[in-house]
Structures are given as C-alpha cells and as structure tokens.
C-alpha cells in the first residue's frame, strides 16, 4: 500500500489542505482535506510506504505512532488510522 502521488500540505486554520506535487500531480484532480490527526497519519504513512509492509503491519505501525504522539487509547487510534486510510482510498490516492 503506497501513495500514488506526493503531496504538499498547507495548514489553514485547523485544517490541512494537501495538493499533489511532482511528476504525476496532474493525474490527481482534487485536494485532500485533513485535520491535525489525519495529517500526522498521512505523514507517517508516507514514511512507511517506502518499505514493504502489508496493510495490517502498516495499520499497526501507524496506530502505535499515533498512541505515542497523542494521548489516545489503541482502539481509538486504530479506528482513526482506518478512517484516514479509507478516506485516502476513496480519494483514489492509494495503490
């Protein structure tokens, strides 16, 4: 599981807007809209996507990172990770 595009994010108030950048940016017609937690997750996901982790390993690693960064229990963190990944899938940015 990897991001199809590279994104550059800009914080606007409490939201993070992500625009595709780079060689294939013209193939993504849209903007990602994330909150602080979503931005944290996608940032860590991008770092992990350069490795050969499967989906369950990726979710576990992102969940662990989220529980270390924020005061949140594991089930809540896992649910947040799954929601962000579902959003990315819906937006067509995961391969």
Chart the SSEs and their pairings:
Layout: E1 6-12, E2 15-21, E3 32-34, H1 36-48, H2 55-69, H3 74-90
Antiparallel strand pairs: 1-2, 2-3
Helix pairs in contact: 1-2, 1-3, 2-3
Summarize the structure.
This protein has 95 residues and is of the alpha+beta class.
Task: Give structural notes.
- The mean pLDDT is 94.
- The chain is 47% helix and 18% strand.
- The chain has three helices and three strands.
- Strand 1 (6-12) and strand 2 (15-21) form a beta hairpin.
- It is globular.
- It has a three-stranded antiparallel sheet with strand order 1-2-3.
- The chain has one domain.
- The protein is of the alpha+beta class and 95 residues long.
Order of helices and strands: EEEHHH
Main sheet, how many strands, which sense, barrel?
3 strands, antiparallel
**Overall number of domains:** 1
Mean pLDDT: 94
Tell me the strand percentage band.
15-25%
Instruction: Quickly give the structural class.
Output: alpha+beta
Approximate shape: globular
Counted beta strands: 3
Q: Which bin fits the share of residues in helices?
A: 40-55%
- Count of helical regions: 3
**How are the strands ordered across the major sheet?**
1-2-3
Which ranges are low-confidence, i.e. pLDDT below 50, for 5 or more consecutive residues? Answer: none
Radius of gyration: 13 Å
* N- and C-termini, Cα separation: 6 Å
* Assembly annotation: single chain
């Amino acid at each position: 599981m990897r991001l199809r595009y590279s994104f550059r994010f800009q914080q606007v108030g409490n939201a993070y807007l992500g625009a595709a950048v780079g060689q294939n940016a013209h193939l993504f017609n849209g903007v990602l809209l994330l909150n602080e937690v979503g931005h944290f997750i996608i940032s860590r996901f991008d770092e992990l996507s350069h490795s050969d982790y499967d989906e369950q390993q990726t979710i576990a690693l992102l969940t662990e990172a989220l529980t270390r960064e924020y005061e949140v229990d594991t089930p809540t963190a896992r649910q947040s990770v799954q929601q962000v990944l579902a959003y990315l899938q819906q937006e067509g940015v995961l391969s």
